[in-house]
Amino acid sequence: MVAQTGFTSTRAKGLAEFRLIPRIETYPAVVSFAQTPLGKVALLAVFALGMRYFLPDLPSVLTLMLPIALITFLPEYRRFVLAISPIAIVAMQSANDLLTLGLTLAVIALGIFLYWCAMRWPESRFGKRPVLFLLTGFTLLILLARAATPRSWPHLILWGLVGALASYLWFIAYALTDRNSKPGRELTLEVAALRPLWGSTNTPFPKGAAYLRRIEAKNPEQLAIFQLKGLKLLAWAILLAALQGLWYRFFHGYLRIPMPDQALTMSVQGTPVAWHLRWACQILAYFELIFTFSIFGHRIIAVCRMAGFNALRNTYRPLSATTIMEFFNRFYYYFKELLVDFFFYPAFLRYWKRHKRIRMIFATFAAAFFGNSLYHLMRDWQIARDDGPWRAIASYQVLFFYNAFLAAGLCVSQLRKRGPKPAGFVRAHLLPAVGVGFFYCILNVFDSDERMYPLIEHLKYLAGLFFIHF
Q1: Angle between the 275-306 and 220-248 helix axes, to the nearest 10 degrees?
Q2: Coil, strand or helix at 318
Q3: Are 337 and 265 in contact (CB under 8 A)?
Q4: Which end of the chain is least crowded, N or C, by CB within 10 Å?
Q5: Peptide bond between residue 422 and the one before it cis (omega within 30 degrees of 0)
Q6: Contacts of residue 325, Cβ cutoff 8 Å, sequence gap at least 6
Q7: CA 468 to chain centre
Q8: 214-240 CB burial, b ≥16 within 10 A, e <16
């Protein structure tokens, strides 16, 4: 009996330690080799080969890898290279569009100027609430652009400025919150963080120069370890991308299970999809969303690590989450951090201090509902340009419901009382994870960027999942 237990524990330990991609950053010989000139060349070559899987052509790969190579061989110039390279890349990409280039450079200059003002006058109204002034100013700029005469030069310039500022908005916001973290003379990393070399969505990956300073490689050994971890993460992205292709080909090609948007369209048009296929749509969409976010997040963070920063993954084991809040944190980490930094903490630290539950609910809705909605409205500024701000807001009724539903779920997840953690894998992990997945499958009924149908159609589709028709 003792021998059997020992064998079982040994086998369990072996399974727990098994890695599909070995932890090469823990092998001393590999780390030492990665610090040699030949090892650096080999590491850069393998990483470039992996990036070719995602980038459209060889010049795009070389454009990315040249700054990474400079950082690898001349790490003392890392910050300078990271500050100059994105500006040079923007200049090359916009060489035939001088207006876009000029507006982009103007926005970068604006970000640096606002950062300087926040540091120069920290006790002023702007210095105390710089992000509030930034978001208010962006909103006023949209209204001003909307008031300009269509097809006139002011109209063209103002909307071009809105578009340029929208892509830099939250990067500048992080720079403004970093004003107290380091002396103002260290501007290179602030400039680098405004539009990082490794790319990003409108959400900064990772968040701000202050965070980059904390995770920056301090010596050649750390740089080698971070780069090896970046190579591993890129390998994961490639594996997941290949698996995603097979997944889509099997479920949506061979089995012909429609995508959620297709199923909703058929339902609206009076040819609803069978009940079991609707549920299959939602369950598949849950996993496909994880695939998508994991792939693009891993690719971005992989390049960030190659540049010498040990950034956390954007998506990390979301299927192991046992609460709604934990999944939200694991699924889109840097977007969660944005909502927490700019909306949750300001609301939590200022309001309802004597009422703990109300304080938590208010701050959660400030982040997951108000902040989430504001982020998407500012991201999709083209809708305000084409339809006007009020129609743009009205077209987001499904998004508002999604955010309210999400905020309510997060509140329940944070505030409900939990007893002792159940024993056993099924009760402690599997059932809670299934419950979390069920919540997000339901929530994803309202996760649509198309804005083609009103909220009532989404509610009808949701009711149909439970045999309710109206």
Answers
A1: 160
A2: helix
A3: no
A4: N
A5: no
A6: 410, 413, 414
A7: 36
A8: ebbbeeeebbbbbbbbbbbbbbbbbeb
CA 50 to chain centre: 21
For residue 95, is pLDDT > 80?
A: no
136-193: per-residue pLDDT in tens?
A: 999 999 999 999 888 888 889 999 999 999 999 999 999 998 866 655 456 788 888 8
DSSP assignment of 265-290 equals HHHHTT-PPPHHHHHHHHHHHHHHHH
**Helices assigned H by DSSP within 249-274:** 260-268
Alpha carbon of residue 204 to chain centroid = 7
For 284, the token pair is 């598949």
Q: How far apart are CA 9 and CA 26, in angstroms?
A: 24
Residue 379 corresponds to which tokens in the numbers above?
């991201």
Gap between the Cα atoms of 120 and 221, Å rounded: 38
- Percent with pLDDT over 90 in the chain: 67
Cβ(445)–Cβ(401) below 8 Å: no
Chain centroid offset of residue 306 CA: 19
The Cα 371–Cα 134 span in angstroms is 14
What six digits make up the tokens of 185? 């003379």
pLDDT digits 0-9 by tens, 374-409: 999 999 999 989 888 888 888 899 999 999 999 999
Instruction: Please enumerate in sequence order all residues whose Cβ is within 8 A of that of 327, keeping only pairs 6 or more positions apart, or say none.
Output: 318, 321, 436, 440
